[in-house]
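Hey, I'm writing a tutorial for new members on how sequence and structure tokens pair up, and I'd like a real worked example in the thread rather than a made-up one. If someone can provide the structure for the chain below, I'll link this post from the tutorial.
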Amino acid sequence: MRSLILLYFLSFSFLLSAQIDSTMTQGTDSLLKSTNLTFTSIELDDQIDDQSFSGLLNSNQDVYMRNAGFNFSAGRFRVRGMNGNNFHVHLNGVPMNDPELGFAIWANWGGLNDITRYPESGAGVSASDYSFGGLQGFSNIDLRASTKRAGTRFSYSSANRTYRNRAMLTHNTGLMSDGLSISASISGRWSDEGYIEGTSYSNMSYFLSIEKVLNDRHTVGVIGLGSPSLRGRSSLATLENYELRNDNFYNPYWGYQQGEKRNSRMRGSHKPIVMAWHRFKLDENTSFQTSLYSQFGEYYQTRLDWTDANDPRPDYYRNLPSYLEFIGETDGIAELENSWANDPSFYQLDWDAFYQANGKNLHTVHNVDGVEGRTHQGYRSKYIVEEAHSDPFMLGINSTVLHKLSPTRRINGGVNFYSYTSDNYRVVNDLLGGEYWLDVNRFASGVLPGSQGAQNDLENPNRIIELDERYGYNYKMHRRNLDVFAQYSEELEEVDYYIGVNLNTQSFWRDGQFRNELHPDNSKGESEHLNFTTGGVKAGLTYKLSGRHFISANTAFQSRAPLIRNSFLSPRTRNSVVPGLIAEKLSSMDINYMIRYPRFKARLTGYTAAIKDQVSIFTFFSEGSNDLINLITNGIDHSYQGLELGFEANATPTLTINGALGHGQHLYTSRPVVSRVIDETNEMEPSELSYLVNYRVGRTPQTAANLGFTYRDPHFWFAGFNYSHFANIYVDPISTRRTASEVDGLVTSDPQWSQILEQTKLDNSGALNFFAGKSWRFDYKYYLLLTANVSNILDNKDFNTGGYEQGRPTASNLELFDNKYGFMFGRTYFAMVRFSF
């Protein structure tokens, strides 16, 4: 065993010596000041993935995960550097990872803290009673009413983060004499404006669980929950934007409308989950649990749309001094900088100007709905607020079984099947003073007589769109999924071990509802059905050095289908699938040393993992060619190696010291193939290699450490502080920047060579946090608790937590399209009073 551990860490040290891929073509210095300006249609979606990472950290009871928890999530930390689709979340045993995005959306049950506080979880590859699990681990939140402690709890919280207020009421009956249990909770979170200007927040969450014990063998229950929310979003921005406003939390998404702040990027979501379950105890050794479940509702995001008008975004690159410098009009820079400093109608959205432009645009549409001679005259909106929907409906059945072969041996398994459909479409949310919108594609030319653009709905050409009518695109995405897993485990005197397998088969396809003029034969109706059969195997062993010291090892090998969102070239316009689509390959191994004493607990882990054959896709508009471009990167491989350390020590009966360290090297390990497809013609340009080998995986610190001290007084109060430090933070590289064509005509001594190829590493930083609380008990049944914490006490607002490279730069326009970044909040607080009985 010692030899195995030594061999592992020697191999890990070798991997740390890797160097950046440098096999690039070289040429002569002939840089030209030509432009190929682009803007991307993909913005970092408000760190939507980070919901899953912070939820993952806070959900886990492992000593490392528990101590990393909230403190690491402030730095956008990802466990082992991986995306959230490698962590599997279950509600009452039912898998809850999103069928399209891959990760669990914790916001679907956000605000129900009293119900979700104590999940069962496992870190990394581990044994699980609920599914095969993921490389990061698993979590199961038990929603049965009988498991909730009887009593009533009310709390109110005040904060200055994403929301300002929270109120929560929960009541649990416990198991009553008639075998009935009821658990109910309601919660509200709201704010006119959060920490970032222009970001409102409104949320009301609800939960109900009813359970009935029929007899010694049968128990049934029903569960319903949801978390409807509407929130104003914020954006990442370039350093130039932040410097012009002298504000690292500048948000270009909002502006004044008649003196009131209005955000153009609102996100609304309400996706209730309901399930009915039955637990059947066949005998003392065998039990089954089966659930019928469904999720439905809506998810939408708003944003500005415009036609025959100037780009309204205040952070548009042509509104920046760097653009004037680029085109040689330096005389206007001082005036532009003054506008950025002093004119809100310039550096924020100018809603009043949108209404004014729409109210003056009297326009006549000919051949309305394709009827020759039919006209429509009115005030056509140049600017509108669109509302893009992805509304899910899922119906499934999940069943698990546990059978004890003996007191030390057991076998368990399960099957999960679901049918999923998402309805994807766009509607007009607000005409902004105009009377109608014309449903044509402003990026492409139409061929019909009198057409003012390519028709989005060819069967209803020149269609007049009013409020809440679908336009632009309209399609459904379908998925049918069957997953089966089995696991055997045994506990011996000195060794525990398990082995598990899984098999997954799925089919997914697009079903277009509009016939798009650009792709009349490949847009309406069903696409090719993409079918994947994948599987995996995992195993783990724990060697008991003593009753307090343990060594364990876990390994897994599996394959999985690509995400739906990465499988279609442009699902908004056509049925075309990404060429060369194959299943991803995953592998993982970790070795752990664990100490468990009443006053000291620790885990030290070394891990290595790899995920291969991934694909990514996004669409951007190239001003140089005046085309929408679908950019596909195929064959992305990542490797993850690192160490994890977590500990908790009771130094005295009243003083606890805890800490966590996560240090890794997470790399790109392949030269993926980059392809560009012209959206209008579906024509693919010649593919080329992207030299990404040994670039760092971005969007997360690769090193994070935390040390904390907590004092718990015998008189029922506590106080403590902790410090979190983050290092080795890299901006995620974009594949097109590392191709031979991007440096064609350059030599290695050119400054543009390094500017194009080098990966940005951000400065190390950290935050000091404080927390305290006090509790009282009255008449032995009433309890009052006051708690408060202050994060980032030193008000460090300059900690750049990560960002991304824009897809538009070339050697000729790097100065126009800098990386976009986000910063950690400055000093924030959270205070709560809770009364329970």
